[in-house]
């Protein structure tokens, strides 16, 4: 969650409270479903965001919105959440492609390269900018890294979704929901901070509300997906006929396996 330093209106406080409640419910469902075994870094991301909310709330109540203590807490914890979100997205990509070791071997190298580019971009922004204090430099570094990460996440997640659709890679509902949710929120963040805030800075509170609302929408969507995964009494599933299953165009699966084998051979050589 990203909060304006000048304070929060009542409706923003309600949005913040709803986000926290949905995050807690989402953590509960993931643990109840035992999905945390494959979503370790996603759990870390949710817990780190919850911890950040608690620390910011305590800092605001004890020190006020405009204190240096609150400033340090906001930006230092934001850096942790940025890293956790990046790891959660990498984990999502791995879960989607883990059946194809060659493709994932190339994928994690691309993600590592993206991470290096983001860190380099943040470092360059910090060195080029003329910062009046160390704390301002930290804030600009975290903001630059966050913006760069969001742009990278959009490219990575869109590539993953297009790749899965083209090759008809079956994505589990939670992994697909996580990919779409992260991508949607990253798009809102980039649009909000790069374009809208640049031209409509005086409406910062409104755009901050849009960003918080977008995050809440994503959380609710994730909560709905994981709620459906909770074991429940259900009837025997209806299976399609074997003949129809065999006619569902196996060419894509063959092409995907061929691509996977070629990548494994290239990476081993």
Describe this structure in words.
By secondary structure, the chain is mainly alpha-helical. It has one domain. It has 9 helices and no strands. Helix 3 (68-97) packs antiparallel against helix 4 and helix 5 (134-166) packs across helix 6. 27% of the residues are buried. Residues 1-6, 232-240 and 244-249 have low confidence and may be disordered.
Question: Layout of SSEs?
Answer:
Blueprint: H1 10-32, H2 40-63, H3 68-97, H4 101-128, H5 134-166, H6 173-199, H7 204-229, H8 242-246, H9 251-268
Helix pairs in contact: 1-2, 1-7, 2-3, 3-4, 3-5, 3-6, 4-5, 4-9, 5-6, 6-7
Fraction in beta strands: under 5%
* Helix content percent band: over 70%
Domain module tally: 1
Mean pLDDT: 76
What low-confidence regions span 5 or more consecutive residues with pLDDT below 50?
Answer: 1-6, 232-240, 244-249
- Helix/strand order, N-terminal first: HHHHHHHHH
- Total strand segments: 0
The rough form would be described as: globular
Rounded to the nearest angstrom, the distance between the terminal CA atoms is 44 Å
Largest sheet: none
Number of helices: 9
Radius of gyration: 21 Å
| Class of secondary structure makeup | mainly alpha
């Amino acid at each position: 969650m990203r909060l304006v330093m000048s304070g929060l209106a009542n409706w923003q406080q309600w949005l913040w409270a709803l986000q926290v409640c949905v995050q807690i419910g989402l953590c509960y469902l993931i643990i109840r479903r035992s999905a945390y075994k494959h979503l370790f870094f996603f759990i870390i991301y949710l817990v780190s965001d919850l911890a950040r909310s608690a620390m910011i709330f305590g800092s605001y109540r004890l020190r006020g919105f405009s204190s240096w203590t609150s400033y340090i807490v906001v930006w230092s914890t934001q850096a942790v959440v940025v890293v956790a979100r990046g790891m959660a997205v990498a984990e999502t990509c791995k879960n989607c492609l883990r059946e194809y070791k060659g493709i994932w071997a190339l994928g994690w190298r691309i993600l590592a390269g993206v991470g290096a580019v983001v860190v380099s971009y943040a470092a360059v922004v910090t060195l080029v900018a003329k910062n009046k204090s160390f704390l301002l430099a930290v804030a600009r570094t975290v903001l630059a890294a966050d913006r760069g990460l969001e742009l990278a996440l959009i490219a990575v997640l869109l590539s993953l979704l297009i790749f899965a659709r083209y090759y008809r890679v079956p994505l589990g509902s939670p992994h697909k929901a996580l990919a779409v949710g992260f991508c949607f929120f990253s798009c809102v963040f980039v649009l909000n901070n790069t374009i809208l805030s640049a031209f409509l800075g005086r409406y910062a509170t409104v755009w901050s509300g849009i960003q918080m609302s977008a995050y809440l929408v994503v959380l609710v969507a994730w909560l709905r997906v994981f709620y459906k995964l909770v074991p429940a009494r259900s009837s025997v599933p209806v299976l399609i006929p074997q003949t129809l299953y065999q006619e569902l165009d196996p060419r894509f699966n063959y092409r995907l396996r061929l691509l996977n084998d070629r990548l494994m051979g290239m990476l081993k050589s």
